[in-house]
Amino acid sequence: MSARILNRGELLRLIDEAACDRRLIGPMRRGEHAFYEAANRAAELDLEGPPCVYSPKNHFFPPEETLLTFERKSRSFVTRTVRHETSTALVAVRPCEVHGIRLLDHVFGAAPSDEGYLARRRATFIIALDCFRPCRDEAFCGDLGTNTAHLGFDLMIRRLSDAEDEPRGAERFELTSATEDGASLLSRTRLGRAADRDDLDAARAYDHRKAAAFPRRLACEADDLPDVAQRGYASDIWERTAARCYSCGSCNLACPTCYCFNLRDEVSLDGKSGARVREWDGCQLREFALVAGGHNFRAAPAERLRHRVMRKASWIAQRTGLPGCVGCGRCDRVCTAKISLVEILNTLAREQDHDHAGHT
Amino acid sequence: MKPRVAVFSLTSCEGCSLAILELENQLLQILGAVDLVNFREGMTERSWDIDVAFVDGAVSTPHDEEEIRRIREHCGTLVAIGACACLGGVNTLKHDPARPDYRRVVYGDRADWFPTTRARPLSAVVKVDAELPGCPMVKEEFLELVRCLLNGRPFRLPANPVCTECKKLGNPCLYERGEICLGPLTRAGCRAICPSFGSACEACRGLVDGDALRAGREVFSTQYVVPWEKVVARLRLYGAYPESAEPVAAAVAGGAS
Amino acid sequence: MTTLDTLELRETRDPYEPAVARLIETEPLTELERLFVFEPSDGQALGHRPGQFVQVWIPGVGEAPISICSSPTRGRTFELCVRRVGEVTSHLHRLTAGEEIGVRGPLGNGFDMTVMQGGNVLVIAGGLGLAPARSVIEYVLDERARFDEFHVLYGARSPAELLFRHDLIRWRHRAAIHLLVTVDRPDEQWRGRSGVVTKLFADLPRLNPERTCAVVIGPPVMFKFVVVELLARGIPQDRIFCSLERRMRCGIGKCGHCQINADYVCVDGPVFTYERMRELPEAVT
Questions:
Q1: What is the DSSP letter of C179?
Q2: Closest approach of chain B CAs to the CA of A6, in angstroms?
Q3: Nearest CA in chain C to A317
Q4: Segments of chain B scoring below 70 in pLDDT
Q5: What is the pLDDT of residue C2?
Q6: Contacts of C61 in chain B (CB under 8 A)
Q7: Distance in Å, alpha carbon of C263 to nearest chain A alpha carbon
Q8: What is the rounded average pLDDT of the residues C100-115?
Q9: Strand order in the sheet with A261-267
């Protein structure tokens, strides 16, 4: 599918076109922060500002949702599955977030599939927005290759011109599609024009500029991360670092690839009806590995910290073949104890380099 | 048989008792499911044949102490409601040896007419079966407890800190604005109401557990310029800082005087 | 409609929606454990493997994972042996015949009985581990011709805590099965063996290790000692099958609660070979 080139006004109109029979959700600015929230028109969205504080995972996987309701009869009961999907255009999803969504697709889509998730996912048209430079110091998406996405969205926007070199209004936006839905919208629209040779040159220049814009933060190769983590399993870094871990779970809940949850029953005052509710949970929280009878399989914060880092750096990739960490740096950003995933990984990598040098 | 329910107030603003009346729609449902037999804020009838007693306020006077012992004797299940009944609440501020003026500010030159003891949570004096902390208590949590009592299910407070609720609500973290919020140390269940409105958490629901306190000490002594003593002073506003961890408290008092 | 690159579109039953099962009968086994016989309300057998589990749901209370303790060879009903330890299991204990519960499953991998065919089967069960072990034992007894020697070692803490006493008595008198039972703390009436379950190995005949599969189910402390005995007898690591206990929640490999190292107990287990368990330091803690 060939790319289409739009100017700013055309881009906004295209987004409005995509959202004409859908709810529009995209970055809405509140003070210095942006959040994925509902908007009436594309012009209200902040497409220039920083990525949203939280990833859009709550759109597919809400923090709390009713899975089914029940009514109790005298000796039996009836249940009713609850579905709540709304046709949505989700706009300005960053590449790291697209990778996060792909992981959720994999986990919730694996048999037996989570139909509630899939229904919401299918009802969502994703317009991604590429990043041409890192958004924050904490980000290390460039090291992981998750600063670029080729799948997992319907349309991808790339701003071929830097804001610096072209006046507002004259910027060139390149739109490409990764799905039939996306391609069909691009072929239907009369907005903009097909990409020409000059645009291809601009796209190549964009790729070069982008490749140079992401500094290395990871002290090892992305491919070596699983091994670095595995070798660090017995390290004392977990104990050392977890001394200041609050076990608040913020890193989990803010992570685009964290999908763990809890299931619980809610019941009416008379006990006759109720609901089965799913809510976000996280492996850093105290009672995550607590079992009936009172034993906690990961009672120590250090064991929980190691569990999270191993999942992100090794186990998720091992199970799914997809990145367990997308390098967005949100876990570092929300940690009020200033525990850094990248620093832990880098410390492990350096310790192992050092050990290796010492032994040879 | 409907459970016979009573509501009592010790030293407090009685705001938690009032919060029960504010349940409005659900209150009618509850009143259909229980017999209210003793509630100063809501009725004149008095009975001492009680299945469940809800008590707000701290044990802060000799009279409070008599009263709570009497309530305990006459009820099956005792539920402490609000920060005062669960932690001692703001009443514990009078313990600060660096601030002997609190009593004068409150009672003026008649301070001596009002004998007080150390302000204590109910659990320091009698056995408490359930606690609903917060200033005021959280109405939804009260409802959940009533549902549990009526359905014979155990009631448990959340074992997570307030941060989990901010993340679920999508609140930006106040630490990003350079504020010190007590959310990471404080028991969730309030739906992060203060941070949701831009104010730092003040731990009115108490510590999530001792591990959070240990982590906090480590965090503030290694990662922030704000001294741990200042954090402790803020934890003491509602009595969230445990009496058993007195050494730091003494240091604060010493530092302030 | 968005085409998902990693997903095939399919319409299936919601995996969180339980099926309904009716309690046929129940009897106490010990002070803490009861046996429950359920029949799926749709009349279809569960179609489980020995060693699989179900999520039992009491509406308004919650779910608890319970091992199936009957063999799939025993018709439409299925049996659960439930220890009263939490809210759900306490509610189960109060259930009377005719009442309905929710059931999701069978879940987990269970034991692959085809690998054990043609050879000797050695079952070692400790405590409540006899419940899932019973599904294997009944299966082997019902399909006896497909297996060679069949030995069962069972250890309980005290005579009062012995599970399935009627079954134990029946099994003891059958030539098809060689059963050894021990208790840690015998009382005055106890005339059987005493001591931990590993002491029973001394009374086992020599088994050709290459033709023997071991099934190990019990509390975590038991694993280490039993595995040492099995390895000493030359049984290969990939023919030692252990069933682990964790608090499974979703039961379908998503919620993360039962994860030990890289594996999810609810889908990769609860049965693991000792060979795999060695890669899972969190398996025995």
A1: E
A2: 33
A3: C262
A4: 41-45, 245-257
A5: 38
A6: 153
A7: 8
A8: 96
A9: A77-81, A64-72, A273-280, A261-267
